[in-house]
Each structure stands twice: as C-alpha cells, then as structure tokens.
Amino acid sequence: MATVKHKILILSGKGGVGKSTFSAQLSFALAAMDFQVGLLDIDICGPSIPKMLGLEGQEIHQSNIGWSPVYVESNLGVMSIGFMLPNPDEPVIWRGPRKNALIKQFLKDVDWGELDFLVVDAPPGTSDEHISIGQFLQAAGLDGAIIVTTPQQVSLIDVRKEVNFCKKVGIEVLGVVENMSSLCQLLSDFKFLRMTDAGEQNDVTEWVLEYMREKAPELLNLVACSEVFDSSGGGATKMCKDMGVPFLGKVPLDPHLCKAAEEGRSCFTDSRCGVSAPALKRIIEKL
Ligand code: ADP
C-alpha cells in the first residue's frame, strides 16, 4: 500500500444501487486521465467487477512479489475474488474471518506497483468486512469514502447508517452520489406505443420518428427524463444537508450505461452514453 498515493472506498447502504457500476466507471475515467489505477473488488459474495471491466474468465497470476492484478489497459489493473472462482455460478459461502483474511491478502499481497489511485468496491452495508477494510485502509492512509445511493427513502435510510458508520470509525465521507435519479433518454431512443381501445399496444416508433425527422428534427436530440423513483423526500441532496456531508451529484438511469456495464466497457468512449457520461464526469471532476 506504500506505493499507492490515493485510496478511495466506494460504499452503499443497499445492493443494486450502482456501486460497482460507479466504481468501474470511476476507474475507467481515472485511467483515461492517464493516472495509474487499481480497482479492488472486495464484494466477496457478489463480485461483478470482472464482468463490468470486460475481464470475465481471466485468472490471477502469481509473481515472485505477489499476486498480479488482471490488466484492462497498462494503467488499469483489477483484482477480484471473481478471478479465483472456478465456476461463476458457485456461491461463496464463507464466514467473516475467512473473508477478512482474503481482504487482508488483497491489500498486502497484490503487486499493484506504483498507483495514483486505488478504488475499492466494498460489499453493501456495514458488516464485518467494512470494519476490516476500514481499519486496514486507514492504517495505510485512506483518503475517504464515496457513498452511492438511489433517491428513494428506503435507500437513503441505509445511507444514513453508512454515513454514521463512517463517522464512528473515522472514515471521511468524500461525498454521496445519487444514482438512477431519473430515467433520461434521447427521444430518438424511445419506443413509441399507441394504445388501442381494446388495450392493445401498437408499435408506432418508426411512424413517430419519421414524423419528427420531417417536421421537427431538433426534437430527436431532446432528452426526456422521468422520475422513476420517488424523490419527494428531497433525495440525497437533502440527506447530505441534514447529515453535513458533501453531495457530489446525480447520475441518471441510462440504458446505455447499463449496456456499457453489461459489456464491460467504459461509457466515456461510447457516444450513446451522452446522458450519463457527462453527469459522471462532473462528479469525478469534483473529487
Ligand atoms: P451494486 O454494486 O450497488 O449492487 P450494480 O453496480 O451492480 O449495483 O448495478 C446494478 C445494475 O444496475 C447493473 O445491471 C448496472 O448495470 C445497472 N445500473 C447501475 N447504475 C445504472 C445507471 N445509472 N443507469 C442504468 N443502469 C444502471
């Protein structure tokens, strides 16, 4: 860890809010800025980082100074228990001490080399692993944590716990990201349906797009946003104000970001990620 300049922990109160997606895209972005980046996945029971970085089926190699990360590019190395599982469908049924031992090994025995940033994707919640990784990283000089949430109250209640966990164990909260804030899509990406009186749905996409192309082509570049999740309680912005932690920004629910994650790609090099990539960029620039 002595050769790693900055260490950032990515946390979430719940699973499925986009923590791994954010960790992966943050790592892609930092690598594209020519930093030397390591991405460590300690979500031992649900490691999705290998898939999100396009590294499924890869294996870790052992060198005489430790485990070698799997490289996406020369300046982006990844380590995950996902690389050690013979079968991706196999569950990892381990008790706390075994998980903690592996986390310790990931931090001590991986030959990261000189890194500008180590991004650590933690499991959701505030369990045994969080206490261990917090302690290990704090001893090695942790910069702080970024917490990812969605805007609805059920997610934010858990984020409050996460913030208080950080305060209790002395981890600085660098900020909170509100993911899947609203569903935002280019109008030209929509599927248009017309409901008949009998309740059938007719696909009239081509007809609508043709009409727009002819009558008002500028409409095709409009982004339509819809609040999918309830944010009437003020969402993460209000929660951050209440709890005195920085709010980093909102990332929309973007089908192209989901596709990029499914295919293990950076959304910053994908022109179709025109809605989510700028939002992620603004957040990363604040760090
Ligand atoms: P977590 O790490 O919090 O469990 P993931 O990062 O695995 O969550 O995300 C869960 C699913 O949601 C994944 O399929 C991911 O591609 C998708 N996803 C996450 N954030 C977004 C977003 N902003 N827009 C679209 N899909 C997203």
UniProtKB/TrEMBL annotation:
<keyword id="KW-0408">Iron</keyword>
<dbReference type="GO" id="GO:0005524">
    <property type="term" value="F:ATP binding"/>
</dbReference>
<dbReference type="InterPro" id="IPR027417">
    <property type="entry name" value="P-loop_NTPase"/>
</dbReference>
<keyword id="KW-0067">ATP-binding</keyword>
<dbReference type="InterPro" id="IPR033756">
    <property type="entry name" value="YlxH/NBP35"/>
</dbReference>
<keyword id="KW-0547">Nucleotide-binding</keyword>
<keyword id="KW-0411">Iron-sulfur</keyword>
<dbReference type="GO" id="GO:0051536">
    <property type="term" value="F:iron-sulfur cluster binding"/>
</dbReference>
<dbReference type="InterPro" id="IPR000808">
    <property type="entry name" value="Mrp-like_CS"/>
</dbReference>
<dbReference type="InterPro" id="IPR019591">
    <property type="entry name" value="Mrp/NBP35_ATP-bd"/>
</dbReference>
<protein>
    <recommendedName>
        <fullName>Cytosolic Fe-S cluster assembly factor NBP35</fullName>
    </recommendedName>
</protein>
<dbReference type="Pfam" id="PF10609">
    <property type="entry name" value="ParA"/>
</dbReference>
<dbReference type="GO" id="GO:0046872">
    <property type="term" value="F:metal ion binding"/>
</dbReference>
<keyword id="KW-0479">Metal-binding</keyword>
